[in-house]
Specification:
The complex is a heterotrimer. Chain A is built from 15 helices and 13 strands. By secondary structure, chain A is α/β, with parallel strands linked by helices. In chain A, helix 2 crosses helix 3. Chain A starts with a helix and ends in a 10-residue tail after the last helix. Chain B folds into three domains: about 110 residues, no CATH class; about 55 residues, no CATH class; about 100 residues, no CATH class. Chain B contains eight helices and no strands. Chain B is extended and about 75 Å long. In chain B, about 40% of the residues are buried. In chain C, helix 2 crosses helix 3. In chain C, strands 1-2 form a two-stranded antiparallel sheet. Chain C is built from eight helices and two strands. In chain C, strand 1 and strand 2 form a beta hairpin. Classes of the chains: A alpha/beta, B mainly alpha, C mainly alpha. Chains in contact: A-B, A-C, B-C. Chains A and B meet through helix 2, helix 4, helix 6, helix 9 and helix 10 of A and helix 3, helix 6, helix 7 and helix 8 of B.
Chain lengths: ~500, ~270, ~220
């Protein structure tokens, strides 16, 4: 008993001493940050504000007592009413979900239950009858919330009456900016209304969170969405320039200007390969790769298939097109069908020329390998997006003695095709192939546009290089920054 | 079929049965019954060997594994995408009744009606199975092609094109980012600024020659032709290097499968 | 109309996707999200068309007694068994059409078909790359011209970079290999990627503007 008393006394003394010490050494708050500016976050969909400030004189220097900066926004009391409606709304939504699930679970079991469980099951089924009513309530609540949200900009006008400061974010010392990003969905708790007067204040906070000093309040700011992202201007310039070049050369081609294109061995080989298959009386295997219709390489492959299928139909050879993706298959079916009817042999088209296998990469490989070994195609064409399967295909085809022509934009797979195929269209050559095969002046015109764009790239690279180097040597800031023009802000 | 084929099949069936018996007898897990577990592990080993046998030549075991694999994987992906996309994303937005049926909470959101459009387009796509009005499926396909072409247009212009140009612009007279002028301190050290500058030059000229190789509408003769020749050389060296680099990694894959056979199936190594 | 409408759709949606990139506004963002959701949903309907194609081609193969037709029964059996498993499950002691996406595909047979058939075959197919890369290397070793010789030399240097039997020359190979990866490869890859970028942009533009119509069978 004595010991407890002693210990307590000792502790009390200790605490007394400690608090006395805390009192005497209570640190003075750091100097407040100044020049708080709030601006609408640029190039976004709205609902966000950028806040910046000049750091406190005690940050990193002076008393060196700043630990964090707390960013506050003035929030009208009306915002709380909106939050209450929102909470009510999600409460109803949760109730509906719980009743729904319980009802489903119990209704399966109901007939097998007895006693209390049967009563519980029955209760949940009865409770579930309230769901339609709850849904109607949900709908009404939604309308109430929508109209309440509409009044938020008005409520912000009452500053500084009927509201309070709330912390919206914290950043460590040494930083002078913060983005207050809210949700664009007003059913989310962190919704930030657009076109409302926002006031911000920044506190410099010391080691103890109570030692703080507040800055002046910033001028009011509205958040809003923009209709143009200025960080992407360079991209727009490229889009327009490239579009212009394409249209220009297509018009030129239409006017009958003769356009030279250099020969591409892989393309010339396609015709020979089709002829060879005809002579040998063996089929042609065309693979569109493991890409989806969302890959441009696959779309380029479609355009090549269009030319190939027409020629195949003319030569009266068989075509096999096993597909990896069902949408790709649907498009390829249309292409081959049209190819055959364009060649005047619509009756020779068979539904089983273009077919779907599976969307599993290696199951597709296994099946195609089987086709290569059993149907012994004279020619294998691989055009499109290929991944690890490229080497398995190309090697199996080479072992089966087929002539192989490949084309892909998948840089990592190019070496395997180059090694194991007779001809390989490297990267851009795949995209040029359909223009080559069709020899239509319009499409050749677009090749010319591509070449001009490449020339522009070379020129830009050289100019940029000079700018960066001269800038570096002469220490000219804006020249050194030339390459930043090509950096795109996301 | 030849007599030898029947003999091989009979031997395989016997080995399968033996393995099944032993794997079932030694199964200690409690996830499934030992009989099923023994069968499944043996089947996995059998299929592994059947696939590898293709390296020797096409044979009935490979054909069996291949055909089974195709059927099961197609169904697997169908079930997966049905449950995740149709049941997970579409149904909770368009129908309370169906959501209830599938045990999904109905997502009552104001924009739900727009999800009827892909349903309509999807039905149009299904109509391609009819020969009479199959052509309407092209509308759905056109929608997909248009959307993805637009999306890729921007994506590749930005990532493949502009960002690569930007990274081509490197200092050729000063090394790296140190900002020091080259002429003031020439050394031949491998990490020194002189070597770094040389490297930058090789990269820059390599890019230029590579791009020149891809010109389609200009004859590759004279200086242009020589640059394009250097371009294709560099491309070939790169392909060779990438090929050589991958060999090791691919061999490792095989070691992984052998480990399965020796450890998980035969239990020869622990 | 019947022929033109698809191209009008391609043009309209293609152009929209290009311009929405420059418009950060909320409405543009929402439309973008919808379009992406739509394409996945349409994809599932396409999968049904795909499965139909697989089944009908397989049945055709059996009917016409094409090479290896007997094995097609395994394809059909695997397909229908797996679909059956994928759509049924035992929940609370009752077999039936039960499914909760959040809990995954819970039929035990569905899971074990995945674990003991799909996974091992998949891994084995992938591991077969070891054999194929060896045979491809053999093919590369028969260099036919200057270009093939360059490729072969580079590949050899890469393969020998960690060879412990080379003695004092070993580190030289390692250094050269690193240089090959960091300098010429970087340059070549950059050139290829710039070309690919341009090719893609040109192809997409041709498709959107309707200059290239081959993909829809004209």
């Amino acid at each position: 008993m004595k010991r407890i008393l002693l210990t307590t006394t000792f502790l009390l003394l200790l605490m007394g001493v400690a608090s006395a010490q805390a009192d005497s050494a209570a640190p003075s708050p750091p100097a407040p940050p100044t020049g708080v500016k709030a601006v609408d976050k640029p190039n976004d969909h709205g609902h966000a504000v950028n806040i910046s400030w000049d750091m406190s004189p005690d940050d990193g220097k002076g008393a060196n007592s700043v630990v964090t900066y707390d960013v506050f926004r003035w929030i009208p009391a009306y915002m709380d009413s909106v939050a209450q409606i929102r909470a009510g709304l999600s409460g109803i939504r949760d109730t509906i979900n719980i009743l729904d699930r319980a009802n489903r679970k119990w209704s399966v079991l109901e007939e097998h239950l007895t006693g209390d469980s049967a009563k519980l099951a029955n209760d949940s089924v009865v409770a579930a009858q309230r769901i339609p009513q709850l849904r109607a309530d949900l709908k009404r609540f939604r309308q109430v919330l929508a109209s309440a949200v509409e009044r938020l900009p008005e409520a912000h006008k009452t500053y500084p009456e009927n509201g309070s400061w709330r912390r919206v974010g914290t950043v460590p010392a040494g930083q002078g900016k913060y983005s207050n990003v809210g949700s664009k969905e007003y059913e989310e708790p962190d919704y930030l209304p657009d076109f409302s007067d926002f006031y911000y204040r920044v506190d410099a906070v010391g080691v103890v969170s109570t030692t703080r000093s507040s800055s002046e309040v910033s001028a009011p700011v509205h958040s809003s969405g923009q209709w143009f992202n200025t960080g992407r201007t360079t991209v727009l310039v490229f889009v327009l320039a490239f579009g212009f070049l394409t249209v220009l050369f297509v018009r030129k081609a239409r006017a009958g200007h003769d356009l030279y294109v250099r020969p591409l061995a892989g393309i010339d080989a396609v015709d020979d390969a089709i002829g060879r298959a005809t002579e040998m009386g063996r089929p042609i295997l065309y693979l569109l790769g493991a890409g989806t219709a969302a890959d441009i390489a696959t779309i380029a492959s479609f355009t090549i298939l269009a030319r190939v299928s027409k020629k195949v139909a003319e030569y009266q050879t068989t075509l096999i097109v096993p597909c990896y993706d069902p949408i790709v298959m649907s498009i390829a079916q249309d292409i081959v069908k049209t190819g055959y009817s364009d060649a005047g042999r619509p009756d020779a088209y068979k539904e089983d020329m273009v077919f779907f296998i599976t969307q599993s990469q290696f199951a597709y490989v296994a099946a195609v390998n089987g086709i290569m070994i059993r149907d012994l195609p004279a020619t294998n064409l691989y055009m499109g997006k290929f991944y690890a399967e490229s080497l398995i295909f190309a090697e199996t085809g080479a072992l089966a003695g087929s002539i192989q022509i490949a084309g892909t934009d998948e840089v990592a797979q190019l070496p395997f095709f180059v090694v194991a195929c007779d001809y390989t269209l490297i990267g851009e050559e795949l995209f040029a192939a359909s223009a080559y095969l069709g020899r239509e002046p319009l499409l050749l015109g677009t090749l010319k546009a591509q070449d001009y764009a490449k020339a522009a790239v070379l020129l830009l690279a050289i100019v940029g290089l000079l700018a960066v180097n001269v800038g570096h040597e002469a220490n000219v800031e804006w020249l050194m920054k030339f390459k930043e023009l090509f950096k795109v802000i996301d | 079929m030849k007599r030898s084929t029947y003999i091989v099949m009979a031997v395989m069936a016997l080995l399968f049965a033996v393995s099944w018996y032993f794997k079932a007898a030694t199964y200690h897990g409690n996830v499934m019954s030992p009989l099923v577990a023994g069968f499944m592990i043996t089947l996995a080993a059998f299929l592994t060997l059947a696939i590898i046998s293709f390296v020797y030549q096409d044979n009935p075991f490979y054909k069996f594994a291949e055909h089974l694999f195709v059927g099961i994987s197609a169904a697997f992906w169908m079930c997966q995408s049905f449950w995740s996309t149709i049941v997970g994303n579409l149904i909770p937005r368009i129908s309370t009744g169906l959501s209830k049926y599938f045990g999904q909470p109905y997502r009552d959101e104001p924009w739900n009606f727009v999800y009827w459009l892909p349903v309509i387009l999807g039905i149009l796509l299904l109509l391609r199975l009819s020969s009479k009005i199959g052509w309407v499926s092209r509308w759905a396909l056109a929608f997909i092609v248009g959307t993805t072409a637009g999306l890729s247009f921007i994506r590749y212009l930005r990532s493949d094109f502009m960002e690569q140009i930007s990274s081509t612009m490197v200092p050729l007279l000063a090394a790296g980012n140190s900002g020091e002028s080259l002429l003031s301190n020439i050394t031949l050290s491998a990490t020194g600024p002189f070597v770094a500058m040389l490297t930058n030059w090789v990269i820059f000229l390599g890019v230029i020659c590579g791009i020149v190789y891809f010109f389609f509408s200009k004859e590759h003769t004279g200086l242009f032709g020589r640059a394009s020749r250097v371009g294709i050389w560099i491309l070939m060296i790169t392909f060779g290097a990438a090929f050589g680099y991958t060999v090791m990694g691919r061999i490792t894959l095989l070691v992984g499968r052998l480990t399965f056979l020796y450890k998980d199936w035969l239990g020869l190594i622990s | 109309m019947r022929r033109q409408l698809p191209f009008i759709l391609v043009f309209a949606f293609g152009l929209f996707m290009i311009f929405q990139y420059f418009v950060p506004h909320e409405s543009s963002e929402r439309a973008y999200e919808f379009l992406l959701d739509w394409t996945t949903i349409i994809g599932i309907f396409a999968l049904a068309v795909g499965i139909w194609s697989l089944v009908s081609v397989t049945i055709e193969k059996i009917k016409l007694r094409k090479p290896a037709w007997q094995y097609s029964f395994f394809t059909l059996a695997g397909l229908f068994l797996m679909i059956l498993f994928g759509f049924t499950a035992k929940v609370d002691g009752h077999w039936g059409f039960h499914f909760y996406t959040s809990e995954g595909l819970q039929n035990p047979m569905f899971r074990s078909f995945f674990d003991y058939i799909l996974t091992p075959i998949q891994a084995t197919m992938f591991s077969m790359l070891a054999f194929f890369i060896a045979s491809a290397a053999y093919r590369a070793f028969r260099a036919r011209n200057v270009l093939a010789t360059l490729l072969l030399i580079a590949a050899l240097i890469m393969m020998m970079r960690f060879n412990p039997f080379l003695g004092p020359v070993g580190p030289l190979f390692e250094k050269t290999a690193n240089w090959l990866l960091n300098v010429p490869s970087l340059a070549a890859n950059r050139a290829i990627i710039i070309g690919i970028g341009l090719g893609m942009v040109a192809t997409a533009l041709k498709v959107i503007l309707g200059i290239e119509r081959g993909y829809m069978g004209k």
